[in-house]
Amino acid sequence: IQSKQKQTIRLLDRVAETLHNLQSESLMQREKAYKNQKEHEKRMEQFVSDLKQIRSKLNVHPGSYRSCKDEAVNVSGMYNIRGEDESSSFVAYCEQEKFNGGWMVIQHRFVGTLDFDRHWKDYRNGFGAVNGEHWLGLEQVYQFTKQQDCELLVELKDFDGTYKFARYDLFGIGSETEQYKLKTLGEHSGTAGDSLIYNKGMKFSTSDRDNDEKYNGNCAVECDAGWWFNDCGLTYLNGLYRNVDGPDQNNIAWYDYNNDWRALSYSRMLIRPLD
Predict the structure, then answer these.
(1) CA-CA 20 to 30 A from 113: which of 15, 62, 130, 268?
(2) What's the pLDDT at 203?
(3) Residues with Cβ within 8 Å of residue 18, at least 6 apart in sequence
(4) For the chain, which residues make up each domain, given as ranges?
């Protein structure tokens, strides 16, 4: 009887070991499948992004220009903007109708299909399609404002369609070494109040690079967006695209639009050389 009991125990131990091995193998296979799925999704996202960029480049106007002001035809669209050298040249959307034209779009939100909760690398290099929702890229903006004094135009609409704008007679940012600090912000004018003044002098922050002035926390994480956060400030145009009002909703915000935290359905930032 004892011998049979020992055999039964050994058999049960082998069964338990086999079950454990099968469970471990099953878990590894699930983890591998999940990892493969995520890699596939990432490759597909990159493919779609590359395809959009290729399609965009097919619609770029011929020639290259120092700025949108130098484009003689005065037709809005995508143009090659010439940098200090060929490697620093880039494609941008030129607005030639609003406020006497010559404006280069550096940020545009209007439908909410593009995710702006991105890491430092994306905000540095830019993302989206320049003829749609996009962020042009901090490095491009730095190189452009380094070469010449520029002004800034910010266009806004709420979900009722009311249009307002804020304009600054000077605008410039620092280099990546300076964390793309909002170094220059001139006098304000326009129908939307001055919410950006509280961000003057602030370094740019993203969820993976916390440069804000908040004592305990990361504004980019809390607001789901990269921006020149203070603590955290009265504006973040890269926030979540949704029609929900309130100070803690992390939506596209410009408090002095109407002295409240209403959600905005449209934002566009444009710069133009002064000379």
Answers:
(1) 62
(2) 97
(3) none
(4) 1-58, 60-273
Write down the pLDDT at residue 74.
Answer: 84
**Structure confidence by residue, pLDDT tens digits, 179-228:** 999 999 999 999 999 999 999 999 999 999 999 998 888 999 999 999 99
Would you state the pLDDT for residue 168? 98
- Whole-model pTM: value is 0.79
Fold adopted by 60-273: Gamma Fibrinogen; Chain A, domain 1 (3.90.215)
Please state the three-class secondary structure of the chain as a single string.
CHHHHHHHHHHHHHHHHHHHHHHHHHHHHHHHHHHHHHHHHHHHHHHHHHHHHHHHHHCCCCCEECCHHHCCCCCCEEEEECCCCHHHCEEEEEECCHHHCCEEEEEEECCCCCCCCCCHHHHHHCEECCCCCEECCHHHHHHHHHHCCEEEEEEEEECCCCEEEEEEEEEEECCCCCCCCEEEECCEEECCCCCHHHHCCCCCEECCECCCCCCCCCHHHHHCCCECCCCCCCEECCCECCCCCCCCCCECEEHHHCCCCCCEEEEEEEEEECC
- Residue 267: CB atoms within 10 A of its CB come to 23
